Each structure stands twice: as structure tokens, then as C-alpha cells.
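wait is this the right file?? whatever heres the structure
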């Protein structure tokens, strides 16, 4: 039951990650940051996640690789959101991502 809920939250987190990166990027006044954070990072994130993180991927990373990648991706998104948009949204997103990642990998 908890795992099913965590899986649903994980899916929403994946979508929120892309949305927050786009919003954070386009809130910047610097064109390079807009393109890097708002366009390139979300596209590369989607491609990477589909190739190496998706449950049915043929090239799925081992558990430790997925945990490290999730910490990096969710952490970077939280940081970008914190620096370029609202602090409250970044902290809520980061907290949910942390709790969900712990549940995903600690509950069998």
C-alpha cells in the first residue's frame, strides 16, 4: 500500500522536476541560464531518466546508482528552484523528494 502511494508520488515528482527546472530557468534574467536550466537540463533529464532510471529500462542503473542519481537530480532541481524562484516551493519539493526516495529504497 505505502509502496503504491510512493510510486504515484514518484511519478508526480518526475513531472514536477521538469516543470520546476523550466520555471527556474525562465525566471533568470541571464540568457545562458535560461537556456541551460530552462531548456537543456529538462530535455537531458528526461532522456537520462528514460534510459537509465525507468523501471522497464534495459539499461537501468543498479540501486546505488539510482539512489545517487536521484539525490543529484532532485537536489539540483531543489537548489535551482530555491535560487531562481520561491524558497517555499523548493523546500517543499526537496522534502517530498527526500521522503519519497527513502521510502522507495528502504521499503521492499
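ok assuming it is, sequence goes like this
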Amino acid at each position: 500500500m505505502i509502496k503504491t502511494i510512493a510510486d504515484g508520488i514518484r511519478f508526480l515528482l518526475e513531472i514536477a522536476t521538469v516543470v520546476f527546472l523550466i520555471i527556474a530557468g525562465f525566471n533568470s534574467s541571464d540568457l545562458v541560464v535560461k537556456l541551460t536550466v530552462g531548456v537543456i537540463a529538462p530535455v537531458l533529464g528526461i532522456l537520462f531518466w528514460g534510459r537509465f532510471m525507468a523501471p522497464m529500462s534495459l539499461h537501468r542503473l543498479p540501486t546505488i546508482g539510482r539512489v545517487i542519481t536521484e539525490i543529484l537530480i532532485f537536489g539540483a532541481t531543489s537548489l535551482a528552484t530555491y535560487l531562481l524562484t520561491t524558497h517555499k516551493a523548493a523546500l517543499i519539493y526537496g522534502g517530498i523528494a527526500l521522503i519519497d526516495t527513502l521510502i522507495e529504497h528502504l521499503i521492499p
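Residues 2-106 form one domain. so i think its the right one actually
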